[in-house]
Design goal:
The protein contains two helices and three strands, in the order αβββα. The chain is of the alpha+beta class. It has a three-stranded antiparallel beta sheet. It starts with 10 loop residues before the first helix and ends in a 9-residue tail after the last helix.
Length: 75
Amino acid sequence: MGDRGTPRLTAGQVISIPRRNGFALAGSVGSHQKWRNASTAKQVIVPYHRGRILPLGTMRAIIEGSGIAPSNWIK
């Protein structure tokens, strides 16, 4: 866990959570993947750098932009 309870996850771990919550891969450019949920109209961009833990600010932006409850992001 990072500061204030933000989880420290790799891109692979992050992607599994939106996928379970109805998000689908909408496209990718370089190392960034765009994930969309058609029913909620939410979209998140996940920088995919295999094995590297995402920075806290990036994690916060993904959690807020996804609309998925923060409790679902905890391991």
